[in-house]
Amino acid sequence: MSQDKAEEEQHIKRMADLLRQGSTLTELACPACASPLFRLRSGDLWCAKCEKKVIVVREGEEPTKITSSIVLETFEATLLAKAQEIQNKMQHEENIEELQKLSAVFSGLLENLEKIRKIKRI
Ligand SMILES: [Zn+2]
Predict the structure, then answer these.
(1) CA–CA gap between residue 122 and residue 107 (Å, rounded)
(2) What burial class does residue 101 get, using C-beta atoms within 10 Å of its C-beta: 0-12 exposed, 13-18 middle, 19+ buried?
(3) How many angstroms separate the alpha carbon of residue 104 from the centre of ligand 1?
(4) Less crowded by CB within 10 Å, the N or C end of the chain?
(5) pLDDT confidence tier of residue 122, bands split at 50, 70 and 90
């Protein structure tokens, strides 16, 4: 596996982790690397690639909207694969509590997928 590919996978994994922690995907892009930015629960904007806060210093330096992003495509594919995985688990799960947990994760994934698709339409 090439260095770039490994780095990309780490990036995608960090994005998935952020969502799990309750951060939300925004339609803004990082001014440094053009990756999608996340809104942390604290309200800060966060770049999962640069691994740092994005601070708007001056007016006119706000992050721009995402135009097109390969990262977003990969992220979408990752979420779809996860959704599929959870769906398979749900089919074989008979414990109601486990089912409830799985369906909560599943609906969270769908929410994020919808968000990505909305961003891609911009
Ligand atoms: Zn960045």
Answers:
(1) 23
(2) middle
(3) 30
(4) N
(5) low
